[in-house]
Amino acid sequence: MINYKATKFQQVADLVINYTGTDIFNPRKQQDFVDCRGLFDTIMRNEYGFTLEAIAKFYQRKGFSKRSHCTILYSVKNFSNEIKYRRKDLNEYLIEILQTEVTLRQYETIFNLIMKVKTQKGLQQIKYLAHKIINNIDVNSSKFVGNYPEMEIVPENQLDLLRAIEKQEVILSKAADGMQANF
Question: 3-state SS of the chain?
Fold first, then answer.
């Protein structure tokens, strides 16, 4: 299974960088850098529930050693109290990023449902819905600025979802073949 924690941090960081055109791992203290880091910190803390320490450690792994849990706390409060009113563009990016991302809980729920399906018809319904969800997430409509490459049309978590559906299809197909052989 994928390490969702590590990939979620990187996915959201990439989205923030792509939407804003600002490298949040650059330690500059210019207002644009501070504001964009506040956007990332707010998403990770308020929307995904990561601890302040986990967010700080992610920055440190990326070479930004001066980000502590205290800095993250200040950043989240500052975004909520000041930045979101001053920078309307970051509010729009926040909404777009949250609409682009599917949360870990949503994926876990879908994976659990896939494994519980016992009929081909039920699996076809889930497959239809999964493809509909994936096709409605148009990550290529994002704004890409600078040297940041375009994202894949189907992110890794969505590929895992499709693989799980295919695996369950094979299992159900084999079970159906075995039942027909007994008759």
Answer: CCCHHHHHHHHHHHHHHHHHCCCCCCCCCCHHHHHHHHHHHHHHHHHCCCCHHHHHHHHHHCCCCCCCHHHHHHHHHHHHHHHHHHCHHHHHHHHHHHHHCCCHHHHHHHHHHHHHCCCHHHHHHHHHHHHHHHHHCCHHHCCCCCCCCCCCCCCHHHHHHHHHHHHHHHHHHHHHHHHHHHC
Percent share of the chain, pLDDT over 70: 71
List, for residues 120-138, the tens digit of each pLDDT value. Answer: 888 887 777 776 666 654 4
Report the number of distinct structural domains present in the chain.
2
- pLDDT tens for residues 28-80? 999 999 999 999 999 999 988 899 999 999 999 999 888 999 999 999 999 99
CATH code, domain carrying 75: 1.10.1750.10
Whole-model pTM: value is: 0.58
| Same domain, residue pair 8 and 94 | yes
Statement to judge: residues 49 and 71 lie in one domain:
yes
